[in-house]
Design goal:
It is a single chain. By secondary structure, this protein is of the alpha/beta class. The strands form five sheets. Strands 1, 2, 5, 6, 7, 8 and 19 form a seven-stranded mixed beta sheet that branches. It has a five-stranded parallel beta sheet with strand order 10-17-11-12-13. Strands 14-15-16 form a three-stranded antiparallel beta sheet. Strand 12, helix 6 and strand 13 form a beta-alpha-beta unit. Helix 1 runs parallel beside helix 2, helix 1 packs parallel to helix 7 and helix 5 packs parallel to helix 6. The mean pLDDT is 95. The structure holds NADPH dihydro-nicotinamide-adenine-dinucleotide phosphate.
């Protein structure tokens, strides 16, 4: 049984920042990088809103730098995953995918969240070429263009509002006859001149020679008045929710209704002493690399102060 003082699960900005801080504080952090080393950011191309890079920075390069920085300051980063976690008593018992057993004094959960996609083959085909699940990250590339946002919840409305300030026109593709979002958000999007809401509408596919040039849609799918039609768009944004990666901790740690880890206010502490949560796994609201990095720093400081 390997004994680890500070185990960090996940290698996005939250995990690596926690590792840098823990490493510098001589807390011998071990990071399990998980199935997607570098985390969600590595699915995009250029990051323009992470401070410190005047021209923006390639996402993979940024995450590579963070990893190297963590290693340089005392973290051990392993390319592997934690597959079992027993948080019922401290030290905590965990197992990695090779069957190695770990006893950890502190655990920082930074496993992130995954954007939901519709499951269309075209989403894969055009990923990074017009398909995005983050308007704040990629909206800038669609100034004065036409985009579509899929979803009718608060996130979709927020993303549509954000995009409407940049793009010429924003379609919202909503599968129901109404928006699910809160009243105030519904009011905002319906009153916004350059947003057009396509109710009762589903997406069948995307088309385009060089990236997304349009979407195939269907209105009243499966009904007698079903109608298929196309719209011309340059960008296709998914906003149908995120799934936090908390499967491993279900039933052990307090989660909200959407599965995000609940942390104490202004803290990364969970309901279990010695277990902290940082980044998107505990953040249904902001979901930004820089915010995740900041909460990784908070987690490391909280671990250190609890010693
Ligand atoms: P929600 O689950 O609230 O909404 C998801 C939306 O996507 C719904 O309109 C849903 O449609 C639609 N959808 C889901 N799956 C599909 C699909 N396969 N095809 C087409 N449409 C689909 O997720 P959000 O991310 O919007 O919000 C998550 C939580 O965070 C909510 O509690 C929300 O209130 C909160 N939030 C709050 C904010 C704020 O207060 N400022 C900002 C952002 C989020 P349908 O309605 O038909 O199910």
């Amino acid at each position: 049984m390997e004994k680890i003082k500070t185990l960090i699960i996940g290698s996005g900005p939250a995990g690596y920042t926690a590792a840098i801080y823990c490493g510098r504080a001589s807390m011998k952090p071990v990071v399990y990088a998980g199935l997607q080393p570098g985390g969600q950011l590595t699915t995009t191309t250029i990051i323009e809103n992470f401070p410190g890079f005047r021209e923006g920075i390639d996402a993979n390069q940024l995450m590579g730098e963070m990893r190297q920085q963590a290693e340089n300051f005392g973290a051990e980063v392993r390319d592997g995953s934690i597959v079992e976690a027993d948080l019922s008593s401290r030290p905590f018992h965990l197992k990695d995918e090779r069957g190695n057993e770990i006893e950890a004094e502190n655990v920082i959960i930074a496993t992130g969240a995954s954007a939901k996609y519709l499951g269309l083959a075209d989403e894969e085909k055009y990923r990074g070429q017009g398909v995005s699940a983050c308007a704040t990250c990629d909206g800038f590339f669609y100034r004065k263009r036409v985009v579509a946002v899929v979803g009718g919840g608060d996130t979709a409305c927020e993303e549509a509002m954000y995009l409407s300030s940049l793009a010429k026109k924003v379609y919202m593709i909503v599968r129901k006859p109404q928006l699910r979002a809160a009243e105030i958000m519904r009011k905002r999007v319906t009153e916004q001149e350059n947003i057009e809401i396509l109710y009762n509408t589903n997406t069948l596919g995307l088309f385009g020679e060089n990236g997304v040039e349009g979407a195939h849609l269907v209105r009243f799918k499966g009904e007698p008045n079903e109608e298929k039609y196309d719209i011309a768009i340059d960008g296709f944004f998914l906003a149908i929710g995120h799934t936090p990666n908390t499967e491993l901790f279900k039933g052990q740690i307090d989660l909200d209704d959407h599965g995000f880890i609940i942390t104490q206010p202004k803290s990364t502490k969970t309901n279990i002493e010695g277990v902290y949560a940082a980044g998107d796994v505990a953040d249904p609201t902001y979901r930004q690399g820089v915010v995740a990095a900041a909460s990784g720093a908070m987690a490391a400081i909280e671990v250190e102060r609890a010693q």
